Amino acid sequence: MTATEPTEKILPSPDYVQSLARGLAVIRCFDNRNQRRTLSDVARATDLTRATARRFLLTLVELGYVATDGSAFWLTPRVLELGYSYLSSLSLPEVAQPHLERLSHKVHESSSVSILDGADIVYVARVPVSRIMTVGITIGTRLPAYATSMGRVLLAGLPDDELDAYLEKLDIERLTERTITARDDLKAAILAVRADGICVLDQELEAGLRSMAAPIRGASGLTVAAVNISTPAARYSLEDLHSDLIPSLRVTATDIEQDLATVNR
């Protein structure tokens, strides 16, 4: 095909509902970095006209999924209802929560469980002890997998071809001066996690934050989720993480695996 020839477009199926797709696009254009958007912002992010974006936004306002002050729009907690049925069907959040509570009570640090969704991790269970990140973490929060301890554990659990495809498409951003940005170095770090069965991340996501994560495996032996502990970097040395926190983290991962196996029998 020459540069002047038109690119063939893939037509949607006859059952495709464009208005639903557009409404979901409006919801998805809000994220951690764009929690509040103007009408113009939403129109640009979704490739919709201002008039169309306005209709979708005002419909979402009436339904209670979006709030507005007249000039800006933002999502409301009701949006979590859209994913609640999926998360509940996994049984993972309910199984993991009491284990996270015991873990956090024991080590006096925040703990979480997440799953992999595309290039991101999604938090499905969490016990916050204190806020140590500039971004507030709640159920449903998404963060880039490559720069998180749970993300690297989940990526380490992928088959080689899926991991290579992920790395090939990845748009790596330097989030701190410690963030690994070279693809070869990132792959090496992920493969090291696969070999060790644990990931320790030192201030790659946010300066002053260290975290460690372990895989949660299903009955098939495949990694289905990850559990972590996060702590201020000044509180523990890297050596202390291995002696004081990681043993409890490993025990928690095993306990969650055993309960999931019981639930899924």
UniProtKB/TrEMBL annotation:
Q: Answer whether the UniProt record assigns the keyword DNA-binding to this protein.
A: yes
SUPFAM superfamilies per the UniProt record, alphabetical:
GAF domain-like (SSF55781), Winged helix' DNA-binding domain (SSF46785)
Keyword Transcription regulation present in the record's keywords: the answer is yes
Domain IclR-ED: where? 78-262
Q: From which organism does this entry originate?
A: Rhodococcus jostii
Gene3D superfamilies, per database record: 3.30.450.40, Winged helix-like DNA-binding domain superfamily/Winged helix DNA-binding domain
UniProt domain HTH iclR-type: residue ranges: 17-84
Please, which domain of life does this record's source organism belong to? Bacteria
Q: Which Pfam families match?
A: HTH_IclR, IclR_C
The record's keywords, sorted A to Z, are: DNA-binding, Transcription, Transcription regulation
Name under which the protein is recorded: IclR family transcriptional regulator
